[in-house]
Design goal:
Elements: H1 2-19, H2 27-36, E1 39-48, H3 51-59, E2 69-70, E3 77-81, E4 84-89, E5 107-111, E6 114-120, E7 126-132, E8 138-145, E9 150-157, E10 163-170
Antiparallel strand pairs: 1-2, 1-3, 1-10, 3-4, 4-5, 6-7, 7-8, 8-9, 9-10
C-alpha cells in the first residue's frame, strides 16, 4: 500500500509541475522571431513599481499580498512590425501629468519613428531597447526575451513611474484586408 501511495504522489507531483510550467516555445522559433524583428509581446502580468498602488491592492479583501496584477490573456500587447510599433498596455501607478481622457493615461499608441538596439546576453537571452521618437511621454521600452519564449518588458516614461510586464512572444497575426 505504501508503494501505491508513493507512486500516486510522484505522478501528482510531476503533473503539478508540468501544469505550472511557463509558456514554452522551441528556441529555434524564438530565434527566428527575434531575427526577423517582427513579433508580438503578450502581457500576462503587470508589476507596478509604486507602493501606493501596492498598498491599495493589499488592502482589498480576498486579494493575495503580491504586487503582481494578472491581466487578460491576449488583450494587452506590443506588436513590432516592419517600420511600425503598436502598444496597448495598461498602466498602474502615479502619473505626474494626468489627462481627463482615460485613454491617455494608459499606454496606447502607434509609433512609426523609433530606434531599436538588439543585443544578446551571455546566457542567450535577447534584449531589445526601443526608443520611440514620435511619442511624447515614453522615453524607452526594454524587452528581454528568454530562450523559451517568455519575455519581460519594462517601460520608462517622462511623466510617470516605471512599470514592468511579464508575458511571452509570438508570431504576428496577419489581418485580412477587406475588398471594397
Amino acid at each position: 500500500m505504501k508503494i501505491y501511495i508513493k507512486i500516486i504522489s510522484l505522478f501528482a507531483f510531476i503533473f503539478l509541475f508540468q501544469n505550472c510550467a511557463s509558456q514554452n516555445t522551441d528556441p529555434q522559433i524564438v530565434n527566428n522571431l527575434v531575427n526577423s524583428d517582427e513579433f508580438t509581446f503578450h502581457a500576462e502580468k503587470a508589476n507596478p513599481m509604486n507602493y501606493d498602488v501596492i498598498n491599495i491592492l493589499n488592502s482589498m479583501p480576498n486579494n493575495p499580498s503580491t504586487r503582481i496584477l494578472q491581466l487578460d490573456n491576449g488583450s494587452y500587447t506590443i506588436e513590432l512590425k516592419e517600420g511600425k510599433m503598436e502598444v496597448i498596455l495598461p498602466y498602474f501607478g502615479r502619473i505626474f501629468n494626468p489627462s481627463y481622457r482615460t485613454s491617455d493615461n494608459s499606454y496606447r499608441f502607434t509609433s512609426k519613428d523609433y530606434t531599436v538596439t538588439k543585443n544578446q546576453s551571455k546566457k542567450g537571452n535577447w534584449v531589445y531597447k526601443i526608443k520611440p521618437n514620435d511619442v511624447k511621454n515614453v522615453s524607452d521600452i526594454n524587452i528581454e526575451i528568454f530562450k523559451n519564449g517568455t519575455a519581460l518588458t519594462s517601460i520608462r516614461s517622462n511623466d510617470r513611474q516605471p512599470i514592468s510586464y511579464n508575458g511571452y512572444i509570438s508570431k504576428n497575426t496577419e489581418t485580412k484586408k477587406e475588398k471594397l
